[in-house]
TrEMBL record:
This is Thyrotropin-releasing hormone receptor. It comes from Limulus polyphemus. SMART domains: 7TM_GPCR_Srsx (SM01381). Signal peptide: none annotated. Keywords: G-protein coupled receptor, Membrane, Receptor, Transducer, Transmembrane, Transmembrane helix. InterPro entries: GPCR_Rhodpsn, GPCR_Rhodpsn_7TM, TRH_rcpt_1. PROSITE patterns: G_PROTEIN_RECEP_F1_1 (PS00237), G_PROTEIN_RECEP_F1_2 (PS50262). Receptor for thyrotropin-releasing hormone (TRH). Upon ligand binding, this G-protein-coupled receptor triggers activation of the phosphatidylinositol (IP3)-calcium-protein kinase C (PKC) pathway. It comes from the Eukaryota. Residues 75-342 form the G-protein coupled receptors family 1 profile domain.
Length: 389
């Protein structure tokens, strides 16, 4: 589940496992012969001709990924602000969405600027040193894995809230959600901690340039296969399978309730409590939005996942530059699109975004309250909060 977008030279792309770190337009055979002479013999240094991305590649990559970065950063920051500053928005589900936004922010901040910068550097040049190599790799993995865990967490929370409403009054609370989110990030940090030791910087040699280095894997490709496939299963396949099962069960409950209401209306039975219908409608809206988030996650990560599996099994790896840019861009879109989905599919988020963006209004008019008062809630509205987004 890797997307450290600009960190590995193309010679390591060919010999190592990751496929999203291509930052060189030169021929692979030249690269392999270069490393054979400069590293294996340690006596003969073969200097390569300077290589750069094409102008079209730079322009397209900069424009598309730059726009995605700006939209994603601003959108995810808005999600965090409206949930933490608006009393009615502080629900267990929205707490998980805040966690997802923070993870997406981490992915965008640790990946996109370096990706765009790499278009204008020489070859595989890495300018942030060994510490930067370690930190950026770790943060990218941390953000990716935390986002997957956050998606899994809010899926389970919705299942409990809708399919086990009595249990939800005790389980689906804001305080419990905060504890689960802390656990998610602690687990993600521990799982990603090996990357603090699995990367390094090595010197690279170009004619007319000195003291250059690149960021790459510290071990050979074979040592990473198990780790990468564990990522694939734990943070992609398992969350998607679990989501399919749980959303199927949720849909059955909501569909059954909807049929019951239609039957009552056809037979002249009036609903005694109109709030029940309102709550069910709100639940359907929330579930639709979250299901779309999961579907988008699965779709946008699929090109990279397919490429990862193919390149790990095929004798000749597929390393076409434009397709690699496409895979990376899809991952960046995945980290930027969720706030747009919330605005499009959730009336409450749409209203909260408008209020947060409005100018010249008082705190009472916009519905914003100090953060410290957000956590103050009553037991009577816990059950209602579990049905809202």
């Amino acid at each position: 589940m890797t997307t450290h977008a600009t960190l590995l030279p193309s010679c390591y792309e060919e010999s190592d496992y990751s496929t999203l770190n291509l930052s060189l337009t030169t021929d692979i055979s030249n690269c392999s012969s270069f490393w054979d002479t400069s590293i294996k013999t340690e006596k003969i240094i073969a200097y390569q001709d300077p290589t750069y991305y094409s102008l079209n590649y730079r322009i397209i990559g900069t424009i598309f990924q730059g726009v995605i970065f700006l939209v994603g950063v601003l959108g995810n920051i808005m999600v965090v602000i409206v949930v933490t500053k608006t009393r009615s928005m502080l629900t267990p589900t929205n707490c998980y969405l805040v966690s997802l936004s923070l993870a997406d922010l981490l992915v965008l901040m640790a990946s996109v600027p370096n990706e765009i910068l790499s278009y204008y550097l020489l070859g595989d040049e890495w300018i942030w040193g060994r510490a930067g190599c370690i930190i950026f790799i770790f943060l990218q993995y941390l953000g990716i894995n935390a986002s997957s865990l956050s998606i899994t967490a809010f899926t389970v929370e919705r299942y409990i809230a809708i399919c086990h409403p009595m249990k939800a009054q005790m389980v689906c609370t804001v305080n419990r959600a905060k504890k689960i989110i802390i656990g998610v990030w602690v687990f993600a940090c521990l799982y990603c901690s090996p990357w603090l030791f699995l990367t390094k910087t090595v010197p690279i040699y170009y004619k007319g340039h000195e003291n250059m280095e690149t960021c790459t894997f510290a071990l050979s490709r074979e040592h990473y296969l198990g780790y990468f496939f564990a990522d694939l299963v734990i943070f992609y396949i398992f969350p998607l399978l679990l989501s399919c099962v749980l959303y199927g069960l949720i849909a059955r409950i909501l569909f059954t309730n909807s049929l019951g209401e239609d039957y009552g209306k056809r037979n002249g039975v009036k609903t005694s409590d109109w709030k029940k219908t309102n709550n069910n409608s709100a639940r359907v809206q929330v579930v639709k939005m979250l299901a779309v988030v999961v579907a988008v996650f699965a779709t946008l990560w699929m090109p990279y996942r397919v490429l990862l599996v193919y390149n790990s099994l095929a004798k000749e790896r597929y390393m076409e530059l434009w397709f690699l840019m496409f895979c990376k861009t899809m991952i960046f879109i995945n980290s930027a699109i969720n706030p747009i989905l919330y605005n499009a599919m959730s009336v409450k988020f749409r209203r909260a975004f408008k209020k947060a963006l409005s100018c010249g209004r008082t705190r009472q008019e916009t519905g914003l309250v100090p953060f410290r008062s957000v956590a103050i809630t009553t037991r009577e509205n816990v059950a209602q909060k579990t049905t809202e987004a």
